[in-house]
Write a structure and sequence with these properties.
Layout lengths: L1 H13 L3 H16 L3 E7 L5 E8 L10 E3 L3 H9 L3 E3 L21 E9 L2 E10 L7 H19 L1 H5 L13 E4 L1 E4 L2 E9 L16 H26 L5 H14 L1 H13 L4 H18 L3 H22 L12 E5 L4 H5 L6 E6 L7 H9 L3 E3 L13 E5 L4 E4 L3 H24 L13 E6 L5 H6 L5 E5 L1 H5 L7 H14 L5 E4 L25 H7 L1 H14 L6 E5 L5 H25 L9 E6 L17 E4 L1 H9 L17 H17 L3 E3 L7 H10 L3 E4 L1 H12 L3 H11 L5 H14 L11
Parallel strand pairs: 9-10, 10-11, 11-12, 15-16, 15-22, 16-17, 17-18, 18-19, 19-20, 20-21
Antiparallel strand pairs: 1-2, 1-6, 2-3, 4-5, 5-6, 7-14, 8-12, 9-13, 13-14
The structure holds phosphoenolpyruvate (PEP) and magnesium ion.
């Protein structure tokens, strides 16, 4: 059965023409389960309507025409209930409904399973039998497995339609992909793909009109790959025994025309582009080799995979020639990183699409900091299918429009200008400092690390930097930055904010923040070697960074040092010991050069983002000067929801009453302990979040520059008492949506409804 499942899914995914793919699928299922009919119905535009899309057995004229409601017939019942339904005598069943064009009244045995994706019904697969038939448990399990395996492909069926051959009658414009909102705003532009390493899963099959240029590209890639293999053989000749070197001969043979080569050229002659031809042939051979009993032959699958990947790289990356960045670029990558964005002039980036990640991934935080609309988590979309196309990124709804038609473009241009008008209004109405209607002051700081516009900070009366993520400096390099490099970088930041506090966080890598030169491969990166854990294990990295910070602070004296990912007081003690050591070393150096120099030890604080700290807050007295709540990580650890995983994005919510109760507890306990506590997670920059935090008693909030005006605006309209009441109220809620409802109701009541309108 496993083999049948593999074969059927493989056939379906391989066929780029959706109509044919669905046709093959129903025939394969019908043959495999030995039934009279197999049909597939897909939901029409979320309208609780099912349309017959393919059938082997029912009247072919009904395909593409017959539509039924969820409350009609047995198939509708499957969709309505969202679970498999087996009926051995369908025509006698009360839910049976006769659809005349389908001609199914002659069938008795019925088994239908829903196609479910992210809790939504996408369609129904049904099988039917002329005579009464009790379908077996195994048959039901088979269909359920197949449906679950294909669900994500069905979810993006529309993107596949786009790649049907040129003679297709399908209208490709206006396709919409649903992701997760990463940064609000509207981005209209042309795609710019930044590829790190292309995998075959990124490739969607495509046909082309002219085979000759494709053959030339393929031969070129073969020549380059052959040259690589010769080089590898020479390099390895002294290190590997002769029999091991034989593998490179196998590679050369596989590349020969008589082996894989001919078949690939054949596929190109049939109209496939070179990349598609390579994918079709190599996946076929890999599947064949993997089926073999003989372990030696089975191993060849690995060789074919490796070789094909090398060819793919040459076919997809034009060595040394970078495509020009479009004037209005929508940057698209498997996972967007700081260095990718740094290579493109900021004014050219109109939007970001990251196939991996979710609302509070660091890529999304970066996008928000830069004010670039972003959508995350389109993981089922083949990367290459987004190449060279017009795109609209709707950072509010998390939608991405591929080759949108004129009406959609016009609509979005209107929304874009409404956005600009709203920001102008916020600027006009902004007071110098943030305060509530009753005059209660809240100090606003910014989160930074990617470079910032100090003019904006000045104009918006920012009171300092509440979180400086130093890891970005590390992520943009090919090696760890030296002490003097770090010192001059930090010096600039501290000087830009002279007279105002700058909270610099020590290196916080791990999780979804990787250093290209220090890769950390772990099963559970967010529970692994992150933040302070890594730097305490590598005091040589920590000490260099802290020394650089302390030296950078000599002129300005506005540095605060903050430790990330602290999960117990022991780590605070150890970090304090190292900071004291670094401080004494710098002091000796400085006093040697200038005996009158005055060196002030910076304040040291910690991030509260690991739930264990909730139960150690009383032990922090005398050990830290301040703390700051990292709501991004606190949310993921309290709710056990990976902040980077779009599959659970709907469960990740800082408005969860548990998260809010934890934050309130921290507010109360740090107040009792006399430790100043601020909030620097993304919740602080969300206008509703800022209202809640102010109501809880926080007077220092740190956020990205883009949110400062919105937060000031909403606070200015609210009375402190009303915010305190709101907190009282939400702490009694059971679910995040109930909290959201109450927060939004307050936003409406205080006259800040514009924040809630679409596009705000
Ligand atoms: C947080 O976890 O809330 C935080 C501010 O740190 P980061 O997002 O960089 O992990
Ligand atoms: Mg964090």
């Amino acid at each position: 059965m496993l083999n049948d499942l593999r074969r059927i899914t493989h056939n379906f995914v391989q066929e780029p023409n959706l109509e044919l793919a669905l046709g093959n699928l129903v025939s394969d299922i019908k043959a495999c389960l030995n039934t009279d009919v197999c049909s597939i119905y897909l939901v029409e535009d979320k309208q609780r309507l099912l349309k017959l899309q393919a059938s082997d057995g029912l009247n072919p004229k009904a395909v593409g025409k017959t539509v039924m409601r969820f409350d009609e017939g047995l198939t509708g019942w499957v969709a309505e209930r969202g679970e498999p339904i087996k009926v051995h005598n369908a025509t006698n069943h009360p839910r049976f409904k006769q659809f005349t064009d389908i001609e199914e009244d002659v069938y008795s045995g019925f088994l239908g399973v829903p196609i479910m994706h992210r809790r939504q019904v996408l369609g129904v697969i049904s099988i039917q039998q002329t005579e009464s038939r009790h379908f077996e448990q195994q048959e039901e399990a088979f269909l359920v497995t197949l449906s679950a395996q294909l669900a994500s492909t069905f979810a993006n069926v529309s993107i596949r339609l786009r790649n049907v051959g040129q003679d297709s009658a399908v209208d490709h414009s206006g396709l919409v992909l649903q992701g997760v909102s990463g940064a609000s705003g509207i981005g209209i532009g042309h795609s710019y793909l930044v590829q790190t390493k292309i995998e075959f899963s990124d490739v969607s099959l495509k046909k082309v009109a002219a085979p000759e240029p494709e053959k030339a590209r393929y031969f070129n890639a073969v020549e380059k790959t052959k040259a690589d293999i010769i080089q590898m053989t020479q390099r390895m000749a002294e290190q590997l025994p002769k029999d091991a070197l034989a593998i490179f001969d196998v590679y050369q043979q596989l590349l020969d025309a008589a082996s894989l080569g001919n078949e690939i050229v054949d596929k190109i002659n049939q109209g496939w582009c070179a990349v598609s031809a390579l994918k079709i042939v190599s996946e076929h051979y890999v599947a064949e080799f993997e089926k073999m009993e003989d372990p030696y032959i089975r191993e060849r699958a690995v060789d074919v995979k490796d070789l094909s990947r090398r060819l793919l790289e040459y076919l997809t990356v034009q060595q040394g020639v970078k495509p020009t960045v479009p004037h209005s670029a929508i940057v698209i990558a498997e996972e967007v990183t700081a260095s990718m964005l740094a290579e493109i002039p900021r004014e050219q980036i109109k939007g970001i699409v990251s196939l991996k990640g979710a609302e509070n991934s660091h890529a999304a935080i970066m996008a928000r900091a830069l004010g670039i609309p972003a959508v995350m988590g389109l993981r089922d979309v083949p990367l290459l299918s987004l190449d060279d196309t017009d795109i609209i990124v709707d950072g509010y709804s998390g939608q991405v429009f591929i080759t949108p038609n004129e009406t959609i473009v016009e609509e979005y241009k209107k929304l874009e200008s409404e956005d600009i008008a709203f920001t102008d209004l916020l600027k006009r109405e902004a007071d110098e400092f943030a305060q509530t209607l009753c005059g209660h002051r809240v100090s606003l700081y910014i989160n930074s690390g990617m470079g910032f516009d100090s003019d904006i900070a000045e104009q918006q009366h920012i009171e300092g930097i509440g979180l400086y993520r130093t890891e970005y400096l590390f992520m943009m390099r090919q090696r760890f930055p030296s002490e003097s490099e770090q010192q001059s970088f930090y010096q600039q930041v501290l000087a830009d904010f002279e007279g105002k506090p700058v909270v610099m966080r020590t290196l916080d890598v791990g999780g979804d923040k990787q250093l290209p030169y220090f890769p950390i491969v772990e099963e559970n990166p967010f529970l692994g070697w992150r933040g302070i854990r890594l730097t305490l294990d590598h005091p040589e990295i920590f000490l260099v960074q802290v020394r650089a910070m302390i030296k950078a602070n000599l002129m300005t004296n506005n540095l605060h040092i903050m430790l990330p990912m602290i999960c117990d007081v022991g780590e605070v003690d150890e970090a304090n010991r190292l900071i004291n050591q670094a401080f004494n070393e710098v002091r000796i150096e400085v006093l040697e050069a200038d005996p009158n120099a005055k060196l002030i030890k910076p304040k040291v604080g910690i991030m509260i983002e690991v739930p264990s700290m909730l139960f150690q807050l009383d032990k922090l007295k005398g050990k830290v000067d301040f703390c700051s709540i990292g709501t991004n990580d606190l949310t993921q650890y309290l709710l056990a929801v990976d902040r980077n995983n779009d599959k659970v994005a709907s469960l990740y919510d800082s408005y969860h009453p548990t998260v809010l109760a934890a934050i309130k507890r921290i507010a109360d306990m740090t107040k009792d302990a006399g430790i100043p506590c601020s909030v620097c997670g993304e919740l602080a920059g969300d206008p509703g979040g800022a209202m809640l935090l102010t109501g809880m008693g926080f007077t220092q909030l740190s956020m990205n520059t883009q949110n400062v005006l919105r937060v000031k605006w909403v606070l200015k309209k609210a009375q402190l008492e009303c915010l305190e009441q709101l907190v009282e109220d939400v702490l009694h809620c059971n679910r995040p949506d109930q909290v959201k409802f109450r927060v939004n109701r307050t936003i409406l009541n205080i006259g800040a409804a514009s924040l809630l309108r679409a596009g705000k």
